[in-house]
Amino acid sequence: MSAMPAPAAAADRRPARILVVDDERSIREMLAIVLRREGYEVLLAENGRSAIDTLEREPVDLLISDIKMPDLSGVEVLRAAKQIDRDILGIMITAFASTDTAVEAMRLGACDYLSKPFDIDLLKMKVREKIENRQLRQENVLLKRTLGMSHQFSNIIGRSEGMLAVFKMIETVARTSSTILLTGESGTGKGLVAQAIHFNSLRRERPMVSLNCGALTETLLESELFGHMRGSFTSADTNKKGLLEVAERGTIFLDEIGEMSAVMQVKFLRVLQERRFRRVGGLEELQADIRVIAATNQDLTRLVAEGRFREDLFYRINVIPIALPPLRERREDIPLLADHFLTKYAEQMGKNISGISHGAMQLLARHDWPGNIRELENVIERAVALEATPAVLAESLPPGIRGDAPRSAGTSPPDAFPEAGFDLEAHVKQIERVYIAQALQRAGGVQVKAAELLGMSFRSFRYYVKKYNLR
Questions:
Q1: 58 domain-assigned
Q2: pLDDT digits over 153-207, tens only?
Q3: 437: domain range?
Q4: Is residue 3 situated within a structural domain?
Q5: What is the pLDDT of residue 422?
Q6: Do 255 and 186 form a contact (C-beta atoms < 8 A)?
């Protein structure tokens, strides 16, 4: 596989092409002058039918159309444009401004709305937003093609420096058989990276199996990993192959390996050292020709220092470490990811939603995403389900993202600042912990209900529950 460069820079693109439609000649000419000074290529049409003829002949990135015209309305022009190019963006302008008109225009297909006389600087800003939105969508498609059309890369999205380093590492290590340790917070995509490594390795024709070490008891984990013989324990009615056998000459992905018990750590260490194992209750030594990819959201070096994880096992699995950055450290990837999930869920739900409003995208970019990509995906899925216009608006985002969750009486600033100063970070963490605990108590331990009480997404709430070790 060749190296995976970032999408082409803006300087390599053709100028964005804008079609201006208005039956007033002075408006058309004024917009042409303003937009051409901004570096755009501008096409003009004096009525709706002429605009549609132009759209059928020329590719257009953005449509700016008057709503009230003698032959066809601007909304009808936009509807026809969407049939020609479903990704085209539109701004409606009209002299008959009202809230009802704006809402109706948005519902019928407009991506934005301006009333005459409009502020030229505001128009330029909105045009820039729409063009950047379209270019992000195109970069998303280009990035997927650059990373390869295979399934294993199509869901790993990013153009940030941190993610490009991850892509390069995948490319470098995939064709080796070395053990790999993936680290990163929950929801950063460790499972997808494991798939990418396997499907680009020399073992790709053999199975890849996955096992979450934190989801099973020690007994069940041992049985799942090594298999068992009939009669080896109460419910063992038949012989069963373990995942080590199923993955022979393939890859095994052990997620949350930091949750593995001390006994299982010893047994798995032997597999890595000798490449052999026995089924539970069995005597026969079986071969373990496997590639191991382990993952954790914990600090294994700290667990080793605390005596909770074997040092020798840590060195065995930490042959090639790959650290996945949290989403808050790769904010430039948020628009690409959000657009990817928007396309996915709009198609699944059969909804004609083609973009995310500038206001909504700003809120997404500001959020810290404790649940990382998984949380972002859930937020976009919810927004698509609730949205009634062709673009996701800020109102469709959860209160925790919008920052308008109800304020508690206890959140007012202190009356006096301590003279000697204080540890603000520790103070804020203490307040967070108290409110998370109180919400859990009031909700009777039901985390979904407690999250609603605090105006948070369930995944964000679960992150803080784990962070503060609350149950």
A1: yes
A2: 446 888 888 998 999 899 899 999 999 999 999 999 999 999 999 988 999 899 9
A3: 423-467
A4: no
A5: 65
A6: no
CATH number, domain at 76? 3.40.50.2300
The residue type at 343:
T
Q: Are residues 364 and 443 in the same domain?
A: no
Using an 8 Å Cβ cutoff, are 253 and 200 in contact?
no
Classify residue 267: in a domain, yes or no: yes
Q: Residue 227 maps to which CATH number?
A: 3.40.50.300
> Is the bond preceding residue 117 a cis peptide, omega within 30 degrees?
yes
92, 78 in Cβ contact below 8 A? yes
Q: Are residues 223 and 252 in the same domain?
A: yes
pLDDT of residue 284: 87
408 falls within a domain: no
- Whether residue 36 is predicted with pLDDT greater than 60 in this model: the reply is yes
User: What whole-number distance in Å separates Cα of residue 39 and Cα of residue 20?
Assistant: 15
Q: Which of 254, 289, 324 is the last residue of a domain?
A: 324
As a whole number of angstroms, the distance between CA 346 and CA 340 comes to: 10
Task: State yes or no: pLDDT of 354 exceeds 90.
Answer: no
Joined together, the tokens standing for residue 179 give 């053990």
- Angle at alpha carbon of residue 149, lines to 145 and 154, rounded to 5°: 85
List, in order, residues 6 or more apart from 111 with CB less than 8 Å away: 89, 90, 91, 130, 354, 355, 357, 390, 391
